[in-house]
Automatic annotation (TrEMBL):
Protein name (record): Nuclear transport factor 2 family protein
Cited Pfam families: SnoaL_2
Top-level taxonomy: Bacteria, Pseudomonadati, Pseudomonadota, Alphaproteobacteria, Hyphomicrobiales
Organism from which the protein derives: Devosia nanyangense
Classification via InterPro entries: NTF2-like_dom_sf, SnoaL-like
SUPFAM superfamilies found in the cross-reference section: NTF2-like (SSF54427)
Coiled-coil regions, chain positions: none
Annotated ranges, domain SnoaL-like: 8-109
Length: 114
């Protein structure tokens, strides 16, 4: 993954619910946090299931504000996240950091930080 273009496209695809395009950027043994229910989602099938459940329950938009590639296999993306219920009521509107570990050009893990 090249930091800016691939990560911008990844978030665009996530927001458009193009799950296969996003999952194609993941390492087969990816470890993904479950910020909605707690815990982690190990592997692509678990992430697919998690996102499918999440999108059926809430309307989530995640937009990158800044992308910092430290050239050491870690990329920090400052994001603006808006969470709405399915009727459109805003439940959350805040910024967080997503910190990615990239291995062999694929996302190996991600963590949330306030």
């Amino acid at each position: 993954m090249s930091a800016v273009s691939d990560f911008d496209r990844m978030y665009e695809n996530f927001n458009a619910r193009r799950i296969d395009e996003v999952l194609a950027l993941m390492h087969p043994d990816v470890d993904w946090p479950n910020g909605w229910e707690d815990g982690f989602n190990p592997g692509i099938p678990a992430i697919r299931d998690y996102w499918t459940r999440k999108w059926a329950a809430i309307d989530l938009s995640v937009v990158p504000v800044a992308i910092n590639d430290n050239d050491a296999g870690r990329v920090t993306v400052r994001i603006h996240q808006t969470v709405k219920d399915l009727s459109g009521k805003v439940l959350g509107d805040e910024e967080h950091n997503h910190i990615y570990e990239v291995q062999g050009g694929l996302i190996r893990s991600m963590e949330f930080r306030q």
